[in-house]
Amino acid sequence: MLHFALLDNTFRRGYVLLIAWCVLALVGNLSVIHMTNVWVTEDATRLSMQLSNYVEPVHRQDIHKEALKFGFSPEAPVNFPLAWFSNPYEINLAQQRLTLYPNTVVLKGLNAGIWLNISLLLIGLVFKLKNKFKRSQRGSVDGRKVEKAGHKIKPPSAQELILPVSTSQQVNMFAMFKWRCELPKHVEPQSHFSVTLAKCFNKYRYCSAKYLSSGALAVTLSSLSKDEVEQTVKRLHEVVYQALLAFRGDLSRSAVKCGACFYSEGADQTQVYQIARSSLSVAQNHVWQHIHMLPLNRTLAESLLDAETNVIDDIKAGRFVLFFQPLFDFKTQDVIQSEALLRVRHKTLGLITAGQFIHKIHRSEHLIELDKSIVRQALKVLSKEPKGFTVSVNLHVVNWSNSEFLSWLMAILKESGRAKDVTLELMICDYYQHRSYFEQFFDALSPLGASIVLDHVNGPLDVAPLQKVHNIVGIKLAFELIHDIQSSAKRRAVVKQIVNQAKKLHVPVYAVGVETQDELNCIKRLGVDGAQGYYFSAPLLELENSLN
Predict the structure, then answer these.
(1) pLDDT of residue 336
(2) Is the pLDDT of residue 375 over 50?
(3) d(Cα 126, Cα 113) in Å, to the nearest integer?
(4) Domains of the chain
(5) Which of 467, 455, 548 is nearest to 502 (CA)?
(6) At how many degrees (to 10) do helices 103-138 and 2-52 cross?
(7) H or E stretch including 457?
(8) Cβ within 8 Å of residue 77, ≥6 positions away
(9) Rounded to two decimals, what is the model's pTM?
(10) How far apart are CA 8 and CA 272, in angstroms?
(11) b/e per residue, 445-457, with b = 16+ CB within 10 A?
(12) Which helix (H) or strand (E) holds 177?
């Protein structure tokens, strides 16, 4: 009876395990089928987006080539099992309806299903051997193997089945490009760069190019090995440069700047964009470095999340320095003013410009602390310079409307005795928006001798209200207006109009961001009075600073 009871228990236990294994196999195979359908849908969507970038009409050869990159074939498979599982997939393109077969994607799903079932069989076999081994150690039911009383034999643990795990770590890359040249009017940037990059980077699962309204090119590559990230971004820069060189034969590599971020799947896309944009700013502000790349790791992500607190802590601790961009006057052939530019020594990101973090500072007390520190340091530098050395300072627009800050500003300018050597810069669009308020403040600054420069001017002036302000000593043209101006008749006409209006106001006009001899010659012919930019000098580091 005991013999049959043991057999009955063993049978029931085995029956339960068999049912559990069958349920697991069924769920696993259904999951593989579902994932295969998801892969087919995602790849079909990417293929549709890629084909939409082509200029119509699209040749059938190009369609087939792009389809193969995403795992689709224009021909139905004839071999089993692809012929059984590879159902046709229709894609609409303009007036065409394309029938494609996802052979490669389905084959990937079949391989996954085969490996799943092999793994389940191996796991079942291991459990079978494990149970058999334990029974042999306990002894047979008929009593041929009997354990001695008080001497239990401890069976060794069954050897686990270790499935191979891929050690290669895959990451994605997001890169942003800016260049100093204009594309021909007949070229559509979105289509041009999408096709060019798709041809050069077709080995990656996903390659996307988007031309932004700001004039930047954003590129996304997926499934890169960490070992190839550095070489890939260099090749990416070279491909973009060569694509631009076709339109501008004298273009140098230094005119094409790239900022990139590589990150793992599921990363915060906002942080990825911010890192890429910051990297691009670093590359643009560097004379020799054309590519700057940062990873989105935990430390960097935390630094970005706490950027406001960290930067203000650095400011309060004196971990910052001012650079000075000289402004040259064409008549005197001398420096007439130096614009103060803030650089913060961040413990994680290194030396960063104001443009990289200013958009993350929102609290009014932090903005006040930032501008107060810049003004104090500028006055400290002025105290070591002879009379006549003029410094211009950009104040945040929020602080212009803060009466407490403006009272402090006028008090410290008066106390320094160098107010006449300080010029405050204000964006002209902010002046137009709050004109009556700013005119009152300009009048209050007048007795101190402090002057005003209106910058970021990119259109004709509103002359009537400007005639009422007597301490405006300069108009600064926006970089977007000056960059490559010799090739744009429209922008030359705008600059000429601004120069003529400024003459009526008896105010000089200066250009910002002059980088080439052609730009310099052009603005001189248009009557511009002076300029600043890398053509004359890169920003100069102050020798006396408060670094800790």
Answers:
(1) 87
(2) yes
(3) 20
(4) 2-138 (no CATH), 170-303 (3.30.70.270), 307-541 (3.20.20.450)
(5) 467
(6) 160
(7) strand 451-457
(8) 83, 86, 101, 103
(9) 0.49
(10) 62
(11) beebebbbbbbbb
(12) strand 170-179
